[in-house]
Design goal:
By secondary structure, the chain is an alpha/beta fold. Helices cover 26% and strands 25% of the residues. The chain starts with a strand and ends in an 8-residue tail after the last helix.
């Protein structure tokens, strides 16, 4: 084994969260002995599967504060970089066939989130002509839109490098915890040792594995969620339609013959039942693009994260057809793709690494010098800037946002907060 290398801060994971933590350590706090360690290319695992959307809409003000701060930071980067991350703000649309939206918005949420509510069908059809005629209410979240997470990450990597930070392509084999951290890492040239004063666990779906190397048990789970992107040759989706979510539970349309076939397979009978709502759709590639993204986070099965996502047992080869059928409930023009499936279609997936309450873990992990920036579920790209900045502030003992302790592992000692979250009717999972 080669002689060890010493760094002040080792960040384990080069997804968007780890990169953001390194970025703010280097650029805001002047740290230059920062090493990003990952066995893969940067931004190539879960981050590469991101929907690249952002919103400040959350059922709890703490999460709204986090994403508002992250949007502020993204806007700052957009301003200083000629909008390298292609940030736009078309909002989010929440659509339902119910006129009663008291469970979605209140006067307080409308005031605090800058939200428009449409409840006149004629107005809904005028503004969103692709929507089904039975949509009775639409909530338009203004501070929401799209970004290019890969471009954001690449911009940060360039700034990290120019500030003295570095990267190592290696697999972490173990972490010996004493007064500092000795990391055994396998590279293409053999096993190396890295001695670090501080370790940041930003390993995404593998955060639990990294924590276990330090005898730390994290309260996280991994759930695989899937998406598709396809070329919309029929121009079924208007190019300027915002990211749109059908909130209503869905009963898929099947022919009698299809229903009989599904009923014969016990693994497929769930497709005959009503399925939790949340299917979402947005055009991809700007006004002149032709692609559309669809997603639906209906899976609730816990997965052991796989090195190759294709090996996950919950990656459903029928998902593309399922999600198109569901998305056609909101945008009926998509029904044509059920019979004439898009010739150019990409089916992919990524892990939602999440706590039970669907809040991130940012801050001290319980061992001096060990921190985490993880459990970012389906909101990694939109929250990464604030997550990285908060993690960097914890590490440097700098001023933290008032809400930061609530997003750290310290919250589990707050019985009042945890009781409140346990009884919440929504976890903000879209």
């Amino acid at each position: 084994m080669e002689n060890s290398k010493h760094v002040e801060i080792a960040i384990l994971g080069a997804g968007i969260a780890g990169i953001a933590a390194a970025y703010y350590l280097c650029t805001k706090f002047g740290k230059n002995s920062v090493l990003l360690i990952d066995s893969r290319q940067a931004l190539s695992y879960t981050t590469a599967q991101s929907g690249d959307n952002y919103r400040n809409w959350w059922p709890h003000p703490t999460m709204a504060d986090l994403t508002n701060d992250s949007i502020d930071l993204m806007e700052q980067i957009a301003s200083e970089s000629s909008n390298v991350l292609n940030m736009s703000r078309r909002g989010y649309l929440l659509a339902t066939r119910s006129k009663d939206i008291s469970g979605i918005v209140t006067e307080q949420t409308i005031a605090s989130h800058a939200v428009d509510v449409l409840t006149k069908r004629n107005e809904i059809r005028r503004r969103f002509p692709s929507f089904s005629k039975d949509i009775a209410s639409v909530v338009h979240i203004r501070r929401a839109g799209e970004i290019d997470g890969q471009q954001l990450g690449q911009y940060m990597l360039e700034r990290i490098s120019s500030s003295g930070g570095s990267r190592l392509k290696a697999t972490v084999l173990g972490i010996d915890v004493d007064k500092s951290f000795r990391i055994d890492a396998r590279t293409q040239d053999g096993v190396k040792q890295i001695d670090a004063d501080i370790v940041v666990n930003a390993a995404g779906p593998f955060a639990g594995h990294v924590a276990a190397m330090m005898d730390i048990d994290l309260p996280i789970e991994n759930v695989l969620q899937q998406k598709i992107a396809f070329e919309d040759v029929a121009a079924a989706i208007p190019r300027r339609m915002p990211f749109s979510i059908d909130l209503d539970d869905v009963e898929l349309d099947w022919s009698d013959e299809e229903r009989e076939l599904l009923a014969e397979d016990e693994d497929m009978t769930w497709l005959l039942e009503r399925i939790r709502g949340g299917v979402h759709c947005r055009p991809d590639g700007g006004d002149k693009g032709k692609w559309v993204k669809l997603g639906w986070a209906y899976n609730r099965n816990i997965s052991e994260p796989q090195e190759e996502l294709a090996n996950d047992p919950y990656l459903n080869p029928q998902f593309p057809e399922i999600v198109i059928r569901a998305a056609a409930k909101l945008n009926p023009s998509l029904r044509q793709y059920v019979e004439n499936f898009p010739s150019r279609c990409v089916h992919y997936g990524g892990y939602y690494t999440m706590t039970r309450e669907n809040w991130p873990l940012i801050g001290p992990m319980g061992i001096p010098g060990a921190y985490i920036a993880g459990a970012l579920s389906g909101f990694g790209s939109m929250s990464a800037c604030a997550v990285g900045a908060i993690c960097a502030a914890w590490i440097t003992d700098s001023v933290l946002p008032d809400y930061a302790p609530q997003l750290s592992p310290l919250r589990y000692d707050n019985s009042v907060l945890m009781s409140e979250l346990a009884t919440a009717t929504s976890r903000g999972l879209l």
